[in-house]
Amino acid sequence: MSQNHRPNDHPLARHGRIGALLVNLGTPDAPTSSAVRRYLREFLADKRVVDLPRFIWLPILHGIILNVRPPSTAKKYKKIWFDVANESPLRHYTRKQASTVADLYEDQIIIEWAMRYGNPSIAKTVSKLASSGCDKILIVPLYPQYSATTTASVGDAVFDALRNRRWQPAIRMAPPFYDEALYIAALRDVTTRHLESLSWAPERVVISFHGIPQRYFDAGDPYFCHCSKTARLLREAMQWSDDFAPMAFQSKFGREKWLEPSTEQTIKIASENGIKNIAVITPAFVSDCIETLEEIDIELRSIFESNGGEKFTLIPCLNDSPEMISLLQNLIERETSGWR
User: Is the whole model's pTM more than 0.70, yes or no?
Assistant: First the structure.
C-alpha cells in the first residue's frame, strides 16, 4: 500500500478542481439546410421552449416546420456567417468570451463553454470538466433575464448530463444578472461608445428583448419583469425617457399571443409618427447572433426604411468587450468564492 494509504490497484480519479461553464442558446454547425434542420429539431423539441402536448406539437414540428423552415433559415445564417472562422457570430463571441476569461484564471478555475442546442453540447462539456478533475462546477447561463425557456432548460440539460455519473460534481447555477450594476454599466458604456461614433443622433432608441408567449408569463415566468427592470435601469443610466426608449419584444414564433408590443410594430409606429432616425439595442443577447444581426439589422432596418425611415443603427451586444469580460469575471469570482 502506498504512503497515502491508497491501495496500489485503486483507480485514479482526478478531483479537487473548480470549473465554470458558460452556456448560450445554440447555433447550427453550418449555414446549410441540413445543419439548420438538426439544430431546429433539437431546439424546438425542448418542452421548455414549446410546451404544447407532444401528440399535437411533434407532428407539426416533424411534418411541417422541419421541412419548411430550414432552407429559409439557412439563407439568413449565410448573410451573417463569419466565413474566415467558418462559424456563426454567436459561436464566435461565446468562444472568445470563454477563452478570454480562461486566460485570466490560468489553472485556478477551468473555463469551458457550451451550447444548449448544437455543439459543443452541455453533456460533452460537463463530462470534460468532470474528467479534468472538477468536482465543483459553476454553470453560467448567458441569459441576463431568467426564463424557463432558456435558463431553466440549461439546468435541465446539466442534470440530465450527470444522471448516469457515479461521482457527480457539486453544481451551482449563477443567478440571472438583469439588474447587476456591472451589467447595466456595460450596456451603458457599449451604447455610449456606439452612439458617439455616429455622425447623427437617434430620435428614438428601441429596447428590444426576445419575446416569449404571453401564456408563459401568465403561468409565472418572471422574464417580462426582468426585462422591464433592465429597461428601466438602462434608461436611468443613459438618462432616457420612457417615450424616447420604449421597450418591445421580437422574434415571435407561431400564432399564439406573445409579449407585446412587438419590436416591428413599435418601429412602424415610430416611422408613421415622423421619426426618421432610430437605434435599436437588444439587452437580452450578450452576443450578436441571428436575432440581432439578421432579424434586427437587416429585416427590421428594411421595414423601417420602407416606412419612411432614413437612418437606422443596431447597437452592438456586449460580445467580447472588456465590459463583458469584467462582468463574467465578477460573476465567477462571486459565485465560486465559497469554494476557494
Answer: yes
